[in-house]
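Entry type: protein chain
Record version: 2
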Amino acid sequence: MVCETLVKTMIAVTQSLFNQILSWYFSYAESYSSSDPDFQESILLKKKHSLRVAALSGVIAKELGLSNEDIVLAKIIGLLHDIARFEQYQRFQTFNDKISFDHGEFGSKLLLQMDCLEGFDHNLREIISCAVFHHNKINVPGTLSEREMLYTRIVRDADKLDIIYLTCSYLKKGCRFPSVFPASNGKLSPKIVQALARRQLIDYSMVQSLSDFHLLKIAWIYDLNFTPSLAIIHKRRHINTLKDALPASIELEEQFVQLDRYIREQLK
């Protein structure tokens, strides 16, 4: 799909450019529309998620005091970070990378092939591709350039913020979770609790229950890169919602005390 207005000349990263890419994004997402209601619901889920991640990326970048151009670039990366999800769902009817493909890696390659980024200079295209590639990885390598690391961290934070928001929305509404989530039961895996105690990131492969899934999201607090991201989580009271969804446990209560102390210290 060609974004003709973007390929004519080298362009400045402005709000007007974001609006053009947004228009292209809507057309691209629409090309995956289906008359099947379940399929369409999944496509719409990812479309709305990316729009919110774009907005959150812009908020974080602004709070960090970045320039207007850098804020727009952050929004563009947020918008495109899950571009591979549409093709993933069409091919496999799942958002589970373990049984399909790594959507960060696939999306990174896909964007370099798409004409909508043709007007960007090489460095900007590499930054966008790099951030998309690494947005879903459990760890980010220290070999990235300063700007690659900055935007990768921004989109990783924004992505986590919105996934936590979605999880809490499902909990508050009492809705069923999408099929990518584990079976609903209240049992916690000891290794998940231990990982939280060590402030370690929890890989999705470790998750055995819906309770594990909620605790994984709580553990993300330790992986947020910027104070503005933590402030958003704190203001929305999402952690309280996730805590309320977990079974009572003395060990968990001890970890939550440590977590609350960490949040207070980071927000000072």
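Comment: The chain has 13 helices and no strands.
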